[in-house]
Amino acid sequence: MALVVALTGGSGFIGGQIARMLVAQGCTIRALSRKQSGFNQGVEWVRGSLESPRALAELMAGANVVVHCAGAVRGRNAQSFHEVNVQGSRRVMDAARNSGTCERFLHMSSLAARYPDLSWYSKSKFDAEQQVLSAAGHVKVGIFRPTAVYGPGDQELQPLFSWLLRGLLVRLGTTESHLSFVHVFDLTAAVLQWISSPTAKPATYEISDGTLGGYSWKGLAKIGADIREASVRQIPVSIALLQGIARVNLALSYLIRRSPMLTSSKVNELIHCDWTCSNRDITNAIGWMPRITLRRALQDRLF
User: Fold this and answer.
1) What SS3 string covers the chain?
2) pTM for the full model?
3) Is residue 210 within 8 Å of residue 289, measured between CB atoms?
4) Which of 9, 22, 51, 297 could bridge 302 with an S-S bond, Cβ 3.0-4.6 Å?
């Protein structure tokens, strides 16, 4: 495969896995980083940020594919998400289009974009999609909307799964909620298949591990109990408590000068009742299918 791929977010959880996978496939990878420059582990790092036109132009030079994974998942308000996720995505697309070499642009969004009124984050992801599409010009755009992504290097879901296998499951929202997940190995395989497939169609694709109906909290507890061969205790966390913690967390973020993950806006995502989705569109388009269910990942400790 003789692809030259420009990658944003290459030092992050998902972007890092994509970089390693593409290098293994023989692609030439140029990745944007705030700290690194030069060659490292098969990747040419371009020092700069989404705010730097110079760095973005250097990133795109000669690339025929762009994979845009960079984005904000933490923030104190709607504007902080907008600046990174919306304006940053627009700058990346503008640089890709202006390069004159980019043919395909894969935008890593989120299933949250399905519900733009749910949170600051979901609104920014939806608006980013619209900005990328409106600025694409001749560039073919694929938008991936993965559900919750987990796997080696993940710091968000790893504690949930670790405690589940110890016999405790912290339950957010109602007992009727349905969640869905996708392993990062499956997501990176989908990325490779889309950017290299001659039949890849510009479209928006929702991505999960394919479990019909997703996972209920009861279902998660049963998976944990089956694997550990002992019971799992569910610990419900009330919405009022979550909101209280979120308010304290937001206040503390100003003292420690770090953007908070848990805010009142984020709580809306955590308690949302339906995070299920179907892989039908991407399977029909390029033949991709997930291989790793959550049960298998937990059994084999692939997280």
Assistant:
1) CCCEEEEECCCCHHHHHHHHHHHHCCCEEEEEECCCCEEECCEEEEECCCCCHHHHHHHHCCCCEEEECCCCCCCCCHHHHHHHHHHHHHHHHHHHHHHCCCCEEEEECCHHHHCCCCCHHHHHHHHHHHHHHHHCCCCEEEEEEECEEECCCCCCCHHHHHHHCCCEEEEECCCCCEECEEEHHHHHHHHHHHHHCCCCCCCEEEECCCCCCCEEHHHHHHHHHHHHCCCCEEEEECHHHHHHHHHHHHHHHHHHCCCCCCCHHHHHHHCCCECCCCCHHHHHHHCCCCCCCHHHHHHCCCC
2) 0.96
3) yes
4) 297
Residue 1, pLDDT above cutoff 60? no
Name the residue with tokens 């998400």: 81
Q: Round to whole Å and give the CA distance between 49 and 56.
A: 8
| Segment 92-119, tens digit of pLDDT | 999 999 999 999 999 999 999 999 999 9
Domains of the chain (ranges; CATH) run 4-154+181-209+276-291 (3.40.50.720)
Task: Return the CA Rg of the chain.
Answer: 19
